[in-house]
Amino acid sequence: MTLDIVSRSHCFGGTQVTYQHPSSETATVMRFAAFIPPQAHQRAVPVVWYLSGLTCTEENFTVKAGAQRIAADLGLLLIAPDTSPRGDGVPGDPAGSYDFGLGAGFYVDAVQQPWSRNYRMASYVEHELPELISSELPADVARQSIMGHSMGGHGALTIALRNKGRFASVSAFSPICSPMNSPWGQKALSGYLGSNKETWRRYDACALLEDGARVAELLVDQGTADQFLETQLKPELLERSCALAGVPLTLRMQEGYDHSYFFISTFIGIISAGMLSSWASQALHERLVAGRRYRIETNRRMAIDEIIGEWPVPLYNTIVISAPVIDLNSSAAPAVSLPGSFFARAITSAGA
Asked: Which residues are catalytic?
């Protein structure tokens, strides 16, 4: 095995592990966090990628988001990479700023010196790390979803748009929607890529949409009290680009929430499913009929017996499974019609 274990803890019947490994892309030792659910002892499980934001490491999502409980329940492998290369000889921002260099790789492949030797986070996350996960961990790479926060939300959107068909879903918390129109993004893209803005476009979700990149749909949660909303994040630009491109976007403005992990942890426990695979359908059915209590949210009214009837059923509207709300085995359980939600549809789309 090419992975070395940095730390390992038992968690919700599964295992939370921090790994490190030598990276050919970054020419450094890279770390990533993985939650391996208990179901992985019997079979390969779907993968959910989470990309973190500025200043973060692989640890922030792992210790703050609280995603392991629901991932253990549904059998999802959570992968959270670091946000930049690190180590002796890896350059940081000369001024010591938080928004460039260490902890701020921006999920691009740098071409400017001295960054080009190490700052190849796009190729690391898109190619090297997935290959490593596929070979070393119990990952069902035919079923993957990707999501992220802030800079990582930008990373999730752009990586999904550049890799059509790889991910069953793409979602983001408070993403930098157009780095070309954001002070954070302009600093990063000019520093890593140079002054030719044509080379910036493959790292800007709005520009990728304008240039013909497509995904089936996008889902974004954004807090209305986010201090970076108007100056850095600008979801209205993504909303406009999606409308022009004909890409369905669910943009949920969450009243009163800010940019922090308090926001993320509030909504991370909701799993969205578009078209359930036969395995996931059976697993979900077993949980429902066993008397577990879940909230079901759909984009149209759907009777409970329709949801838990014959499986597998292709449910093209969003189904959301969350914390205890409705006892689906109760004869009084109502039909429900609530908005779509966040986490990642890794259990979706047979063959996706």
From this structure: 150, 226, 259
